[in-house]
Design goal:
72% of the residues lie in helices and 0% in strands. It contains nine helices and no strands.
Amino acid sequence: MYFCRMNTQETILTQSFKLFLNEGYKEVSINKIIKKCDISKGAFYYHFETKEDLYQQVLNRFFFNYFNDADFIYDEKISFEEKLHHFIITFVTPYEELLTLTSRNDLIYYFRFLFQAAGQNQQIQYKVNKHFYKKGFYLSLLIKDEQIKNNIKSDIDPKILAKQLLSIIMGITILNGIYDATIIKSRLIESIELFVKQYIK
């Protein structure tokens, strides 16, 4: 997803992301970013108006835009379980790529970075909620489709079941953030399979 040779703006975004991730927004100064990127102050302000502007663009690049690339499957030829497996893979894969980018083995600092941003800014909080709402909405469509096919019990509200599924997926991802993404993926699949068995006919 990233080029080996980055231009100045990409370098600032990537290095700032790593600094914000490891040290927190308040602790990272523009001077520290300039030193880390080995650029002039003029080069920084050519690409970003303020530190807040940079922070917003870092969030867009490494969360909102980054995670919107996930593909959803509506293929009628594959089972509900396979669609859920694909959902889990697309949910976790961006985290794997971020771990490679940041040379880390865990996701703890990434979640701290995201939640800190959401806690400080209502607009960011709204965008985070909207992002996960879209994933929940997709799951509810999958469940509703399976109910129409008579594969899942019809007396269950698909929106409620989708919220429960998404809560499990997010909870396991966060609680297992100390492990690498391969372990997280394995635990997600295992837990979702156990959960779904209760509702499949």
